[in-house]
């Protein structure tokens, strides 16, 4: 019986985690990667999860036969919505906020299946407690199985599912898993009813919850509170308001830490693809540890040194030049200890199983609040990632206080040092050079700083460790394109090769600081497509490439692929500069995306991709897409290491050029014949790699650390 329940909960958690990732990929081509899309999806899934836990809390007061019948009935009805798919007529509104449309789409497609699966974690544990005599005191051990299923999905989705299966195949496989889950739920329900039929039916008594309207509860059987020798035992007390608030806070802190550390390490430390999976894996694994049949809680001696870890983490975040091989483990270890500590306190604070569903309801509420704080509140309230160090410090005060005098004194000393570091460090975020501006949007924190490169002063625009552009402050060199866009770079050579073309029309996805506008001429029309309006504001306020360009410049705000598709312009050159960080917008390099580009490209036009990236080699993907679209693809890479602070072999009038990799695709190779005579350009040969489409992409196949 225990194995059946554990398998059911592990599979339900696996499907629940999987469907969220799958649904986001299904929606991406329709609405792009705007923050409104991701936040709407986040709010939807968290709201439905909370609704599912609320339903489980209500249903647990019914007779077991009714609970099982209702659950199976809902799950059977949800089959009508499977496989999860988006119909061809499901198109977002063109002149209105798509958030409500997206909520409606999610409700119609994934809402009921997600709701049904989300109810199982608390409900099936309640079935086990309500009817089982064996291991009756610990239904919470199944929460470890549930989080283990989520952890397995986290590992399996990017490594096995996404890399091997198209989205259409995934939806059918998920449907098969859902049908298997129904069978397991039926078996679990039948076993629970069969075991329970030997005892008098009873309904557990619950206190009035402020979260939902409670129905009158039934009286418990007097046998429920008899010890093994028949001596009456007092019934467990219902959780107090203070206990509920503690549950909420202890669940909210790790949830906030998860999002905070993920954002920090992927933007401010190193933009390694899929690095986000490590903090999430730690988060899930600590749940498995503390709710296991033999719980592994944070050791009191180990917890004594948590303030030191937090202090070192805060200190390291304000020192420039520390190796990522020190920074990354330090942040991950510190967050792991805090998550483990908070989850340990949660495990120790769990109520009698009679109030199990109530406990999980407040747990879910805390998780939702922690996530919403980071995703919705913090970007508006803070100009940088202040929420992460704040929650780091706050979490320390919710861990168990050392009991022995020696450890307590040591703990207090460390706590004082940590608070001193926090008082200074929270006001001085790490930055190179003189900070001119620091602003934040839903896409992250942007910094504008003034730095000296050898003898030259430059203004630099950065997002974490990714530099989006730089410009010299020297009036004679202000219109010199720098960084990845210098005259000696691939894009610089491309503009030189096509400069004689009259009335050149250029479309560019990704604005940065508008560096390539330096190549513009008076008779040319240029349109930049930028997803974040704050980037345009920074580019115009602190840099002059856009305003000083002789060309006619226009900036269109929105997802590049979708906004370009709506444009009525035909371009001689389309430039894409959005692939340098860890968050690769996959929907911009698919067969369907190429169809959009080609529909906006002149017969003798070209498409240029900036693919400089330390961890991803997108050239084979572009080569396959070019082959499929009947294009010829050439690759340019500077003759230098991406990891060495050298400059291009080509002459340049300014310091500050960066090595870069560019791919140019053309319908007519003769249109760029002058360009590819240079031996730095090589033709991309056809490969046997799978074609990337809106239905399939494989990030693992292009991962490569360059030297």
From TrEMBL:
Coiled coil: none annotated. The keyword Transport does not apply. The chain crosses the membrane at residues 33-56, 68-88, 100-121, 142-160, 172-193, 247-266, 272-292, 297-316, 322-343, 355-374, 380-399, 411-428. InterPro entries: SAM-dependent_MTases_sf. Keywords: Membrane, Polyamine biosynthesis, Transmembrane, Transmembrane helix. Residues 223-242 are annotated as: Disordered. GO terms for biological process: polyamine biosynthetic process. Gene3D superfamilies: Vaccinia Virus protein VP39. This is Fused MFS/spermidine synthase. It comes from Tumidithrix elongata BACA0141.
